[in-house]
Amino acid sequence: MVIRQQLKAALASVIASRWVVAWSGGADSTALLHALIQLNLPQPILAIHVNHQLQANSSLWSEQCRRMAAQWGVDFHAVDVAVVASGKGVEAAAREARYHAFEVLLESGDMLLQGHHADDQLETLVFRILRGEGLVGLSGIPEQREIGQARLLRPLLFCSRAEIEEYVAAQALTVIHDPSNHSRQFSRNRIRHDVIPALKAFESMAAEHAAASAKYLQQSGEAMRELLCVYHEEHIGRDRWGWWCKPIEAMSEQSVWIHHWISSVLQLSISGKLVREIVNLLYLDVDRRGEVRLGTSGCFYSYGGRLYFVKANSSNWTNELPVCIAGHGENYQIEATTSGLRLLPNTYEIRLVEAAGKILPAGRRGRRKLKKYYQDIRVPWFARGRLPGLFYQGELAAIADILVCEGYQAKEGEVGWLLHHEFD
């Protein structure tokens, strides 16, 4: 049968110590698991069922999969996950929870198999076209990739939904029907039930053609990434303020380069629309400040002709010297030195510093505006309100390792301390 033949061909050159099937109990993953068993390959098989606990019958589905696995003589593991939408939407949150569960369970040498097919690829391309995505997004669902310490493979990506349903019917397989797949609440479901049938009425091979186009785009994307890698050394880096990227002067349009930096280097998923907004940051007037927030991941800024990405963080400090401090999205380390901050009888309080007001740097004459001091030592505008200040009895004594105020510097023969700080 087509499914078995496609699976056998896809796995022929794959090296794996164990096959791990992502098994929802639906038609796609059930056909995949059943066909894999029929191949009688030497590697052991583990079926993983992730219970998202979003449906009333979800526990029953887990038990149904457990019974079928026992009947087929396959190792089985069910895992319950908590889906917290937190602004991402239920589908995205469920996907994130599911893949996290896979990463925890997978071992080195495992090959995770998923039942995505050509119709899934078509839905993905339509969905991403409507979002205005570029080359990376329109490359669709990748046939394989790394996941944790293992690899992921979608061996049925060039099979149609109809071929999978034919296999399920021919083998009289029992499958689970998730009612959420028919809910018009989700954009992908509306595409599946309203848009795809119209496309197939116009072109019966739409799914197969979409799968082929996605493959070509993936190959083009890989070639582009290889070409762009030659610019990494001089145009991409990281300093204490975050991850940065400089425009490539030879390129008249920076969107492809910036998208490459974000998706391939920062490993972040982003729409073409947001990429264009980020590129526009480069062309703001010098006195204008802009930012583009990427969900809960972090924020993009421009400064000094560069784009910066800074991970989201809580900007809360409750630790006291002398210790090593670890925060969310920020790194700190205390260093003993012959200069720097003097240790006083009471401990220092660490909290944010407002950029307003005046300071008196150690060894300097006359007070000066903190804002001007930041400008002189080239502290980016987006970092100024997030730097950790060390306060002694309510008075500012130091700011990270860039300022020690008069009266708080270590004296000759004393051990001083510096609070090194950088953004992730």
What does this structure look like?
With 424 residues, this protein is an alpha+beta fold. 36% of the residues lie in helices and 22% in strands. The protein is built from 14 helices and 21 strands. It has helices at 2-11, 27-38, 58-72, 90-105, 118-130, 135-138, 161-170, 187-202, 206-228, 232-235, 255-265, 272-280, 370-376, 381-384, and strands at residues 18-22, 45-51, 75-80, 110-113, 144-147, 150-153, 236-239, 242-245, 291-294, 298-303, 306-311, 326-327, 330-337, 341-342, 349-352, 358-359, 368-369, 388-392, 395-399, 403-404, 416-423. A 6-stranded mixed β-sheet has the order 3-2-1-4-6-5, with helices on both faces. Strands 7-8-11-10-9 form a 5-stranded antiparallel β-sheet. Strands 12-13-21-14 form a 4-stranded antiparallel β-sheet, with no helix packed on it. A hairpin with a 2-residue loop joins strand 12 (326-327) and strand 13. Helix 1 (2-11) crosses helix 2 (27-38) and helix 5 packs across helix 8 (187-202). The longest helix is centred in the middle third of the chain and has 23 residues, at 206-228. The relative contact order is 0.09. Mean pLDDT is 86; it is low at 314-329.
Describe, in short, the structure shown.
With 424 residues, the chain is α+β, with helices and mostly antiparallel strands. It has helices spanning 2-11, 27-38, 58-72, 90-105, 118-130, 135-138, 161-170, 187-202, 206-228, 232-235, 255-265, 272-280, 370-376, 381-384; strands at residues 18-22, 45-51, 75-80, 110-113, 144-147, 150-153, 236-239, 242-245, 291-294, 298-303, 306-311, 326-327, 330-337, 341-342, 349-352, 358-359, 368-369, 388-392, 395-399, 403-404, 416-423.
